[in-house]
Structures are given as C-alpha cells and as structure tokens.
Amino acid sequence: MTATLAAISKKTAPEACERRVAVEIRAISKHFGTGERRVTALRAVDWEVYAGQMSMIVGPSGCGKTTLLSVVAGILNADEGSVSIFGEEVSRMSDRARTRFRATHIGFVFQQYNLLPALTAAENAAIPLVIAGWSKSKAVDRAREVLSSLGMGKKTESFPNQLSGGQQQRVAISRALVHEPSLLVCDEPTAALDHETGLSVMELLREAAVKPDRAVVVVTHDNRVFHFGERIAHMDDGRIVQVEDKGPFRPASAPSTGGHD
Ligand SMILES: Nc1ncnc2c1ncn2[C@@H]1O[C@H](COP(=O)(O)OP(=O)(O)OP(=O)(O)O)[C@@H](O)[C@H]1O
Ligand SMILES: [Mg+2]
C-alpha cells in the first residue's frame, strides 16, 4: 500500500507542478445596462485555465457563459477584476495593445461559423494572417495546409454555401488555428451540428488544439460533448458554482475502471 502511494505521489506531484496557468481571472464582475435595466452577468468570478487541457464552461441559458468567455478572450472589458493570459495582464492593456494581443495570441470559434460568403474556404481561413500583414498568396497557402490537416484538402476552393455545417465549422476552426494562437476559445461550437458531426468537431478540436503550450476553452450546453472537458466550470447566475477537474480525456464509451455505472 505504501509503495503504491509512493508511486502515485511520484507520478502526480511533478505533473501537478508542471501545470502551466494559461488564463487567470480574479474577481471579475460585469454588468450590462443601467437603472432598472441593469443586469449583472458576472459576479466576482475567479477561475484558472491550464495549458495542455480542454476546459469547459457549462450552465443554463443566461448564466453568463458567453460573457465570461468574451472577458477571457479580451472581446469584452470587465467592470472589475483582472484577466491574465500566459502571464500578460490583458485587463490593464490599452485598447490598441489588447487588440494586437488578441490578434496574435487568441483564436475564436463560434456557433454560427461567421464565414464570409464571397470568400473561398482557404481565403476565409487565411483572414487572421492577412490581418497580421502576410501577403494574400502566402496566407492562403498556409490556410490550405491547415485545412488539409483538418480533412478539408479537397474543399479549399469551395465557398461556404457549397459546404455542409460540419465542413463550415472545420473552416472556422482552421481560421481560428491558422496563426497558431496560444489560447483558443469556442462558444457553442457544436450547437448547430448533428450529434455525429458535433462529436467529430470536438475530436478535431481536441487533436488540433490541445497542446502542452496551448489552452482551449469551450462553452457548451451540449451534454453529449461534456466528456471532452478536462476541467469544467459549472456556472449559475453569474457565478462559477463548481469546478470539476476530471483529468485527461477518455472516450465516452471507455469501460469504467471502478465504481458503478
Ligand atoms: N450586450 C448585452 N446587453 C445586455 N444584457 C446582456 C448583454 N449580453 C448579455 N446580457 C445578459 O447577461 C446575462 C448573461 O448572458 P450570456 O450571454 O453571458 O449568457 P449565456 O450563459 O451565454 O446564455 P446562452 O446559453 O443562452 O448563450 C443574461 O442575462 C443576458 O441577458
Ligand atoms: Mg451564450
């Protein structure tokens, strides 16, 4: 027994020490509107996201998930509190510096893909690089590589209306990853997809984005994909009410190793 405990602590202690904080939020509050219309969306929220993991934010509609993700990603300014991403305190940056930081270090995936209809898949996926100053041809070449790595090699010249929902979401994921961001944030990425396609998109996100030096945060309502979350923040009424650390991903169908089913 003692030997087993020693083996476990040997194994887990260094791993615990190595967990690198990717996002740290402290005492974040956010209100919308004024007077009688004032809504409190976040109430003094503290949270950490670690690199090398897929973190999830779950909870009922209106509880503040998108608001929290937007604050984490620097899309929205909190009224109070601080946000640090890989040690950089984004909440203290000027708007200009924050926009630059976001363009370099953060990728976004949304429920509705947000692809530009007049651009091909490769041109859509190339957008972050063009914004970063790459020439269009180099950016599109690089976007084609990313699309190919996500199983979209034959569709790089298709327009969004020629693609299925799952394929459009792959283009959106390629666009989010093309500039190799250290933080990927996804708001309900499977909500517009059928079950099978949703699972394959989550699998793709896990394989493409969960790296030792990168963190992924997914907001979801979709209980069919909860098992992808390695660290899950449960929200209710503007607060994180529970954080579950589930450890490395295991497929939903994996046999149980103990306890009851
Ligand atoms: N721009 C805004 N103006 C006013 N109120 C807002 C705004 N954005 C969000 N809210 C309010 O803040 C609260 C949290 O909204 P949020 O969009 O973060 O919820 P959510 O958990 O993402 O919900 P859903 O699951 O339906 O997407 C809600 O009461 C919402 O009405
Ligand atoms: Mg939302």
Number of strands: 10
CATH superfamily: P-loop containing nucleotide triphosphate hydrolases
Mean pLDDT: 87
- Cα end-to-end separation: 26 Å
| Poorly predicted ranges | 1-17, 255-261
Structural class: alpha/beta
Helical fraction: 25-40%
CATH topology: Rossmann fold
Query: CATH architecture, please?
Result: 3-Layer(aba) Sandwich
Q: Largest beta sheet: what is the strand line-up? A: 6-7-8-3-9-10
Number of helices: 7
Number of domains: 1
Sequence of secondary-structure elements? HEEEHEEHEHHHEHEEE
Main sheet properties: 6 strands, mixed
What would you report as the Rg, rounded to the nearest angstrom?
19 Å
For this structure, what is the CATH class? Alpha Beta
Query: What ligand molecules are bound, each kind once?
Result: adenosine-5'-triphosphate, magnesium ion
The gross shape turns out to be: globular
How would you characterize the overall build of this protein?
The chain is an alpha/beta fold and 261 residues long. The chain has a single domain, classed as 3-Layer(aba) Sandwich (Rossmann fold). It is 34% helix and 25% strand. The strands form two sheets. The protein has a six-stranded mixed beta sheet with strand order 6-7-8-3-9-10, with helices on both faces. A four-stranded antiparallel beta sheet has the order 2-1-4-5, with helices on one face. The relative contact order is 0.17. The structure holds adenosine-5'-triphosphate and magnesium ion.
